[in-house]
Structures are given as C-alpha cells and as structure tokens.
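Subject: for your reference before the review

Hello V.,

The reviewers asked for a structural picture of the protein, and I figured it would be easier to keep everything in one thread rather than splitting it across files. Below is the amino acid sequence we used in the manuscript, unchanged from the supplementary table.
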Amino acid sequence: MGEILAKEGIRLVFGGGRVGLMGLVADAVLDNGGEVIGVIPKFLEQWEVGHSGCTELIVTDNMHDRKLKMATLSDAFAILPGGLGTLDETFEILTWKQLELHDKPVVIVDIGGYWKPLTALIDAQISENYVRAEHRSLYTVVSTAAEVLPIIRSMPPARLSLESKWL
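And here is what came back from the structure prediction:
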C-alpha cells in the first residue's frame, strides 16, 4: 500500500505511530519518496511511539482531536487489517458517513479474508434490522491493496466536508 501511494503521488495521513502495520506502511511511503502526515495524541508521543520520520507530525491534545484531524486531512479512507484502534476508527468514520458529516470513499482492504467477520457482523445487524440495508453502500470491500486507488478514483468526488460541519 505504501509503495502504491508514493508512486501515485498520494499523501498518507495516518495515526502517527512507528509501530504495527501502519508504521510499516508509513515507512514504505517514505522509502519510495512519498509524503506522510502523522497525527498523534500528546500522550502517545510522550510514550515515544511517534514516527519521527514523518514529513509532518501533528500532535493533538487527545484521541478525539486526533481522529477529527486525520479525517479532515484525508480525501478517502483505506481500512487495512488492524486491532481495536482500527475498529474504533472504522466505525467512527462509517458512522460519520452515515450521519452525512462526510461522503468520502471508505474502502475496506480485506487481505486474506481478514475483514470477513466484520462484514458478516454488519450483514447480521442488517438481518436483525439494527442497520439499514442501504448502509452497506457506506463502504466498498476489496481484497488487495492494488484495488484501492482504482476503486476510489471511480467514485464521485466528496461534496460534504467535515470542516463545514464541525470546525
């Protein structure tokens, strides 16, 4: 993913950490001459997990400000395999889209079927009438990183801005 972004001249906006898969993606962007903006809350920066190699590292007061800043700076969202923080950010960005706070593309990258349990959960929520069937359109699922940019480019440009809603 990182190599693809860099070669296409697309800036990576991410959570600012040097650990885990996102740290590796940021490294790949940087190694291939790309731009990386990290957004990290002050307390994580103090734990020294911030990615010091970022083109720009923005330090926020808290996690909520971090997520809003990342969402504001981003034109689209690619959800890679991850842990609880990834789930938190995924559901928040989907909920904001559901509430029409933004209409940016959200692409779930289901490498090796990693996100199948998540999409099955959403399907179950739809079956039980907790989620409307049309909310499946809030996101697109692809199976490889190579599919992300073509999918995003095929979507209409965003017309709703988080800045106009909250800032």
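For the response letter, the relevant points are probably these. Strands lie at 12-14, 36-41, 56-60, 77-79, 106-109, 140-142. The chain has two domains: 1-74, 76-154.

Happy to draft the paragraph if you're swamped.

O.
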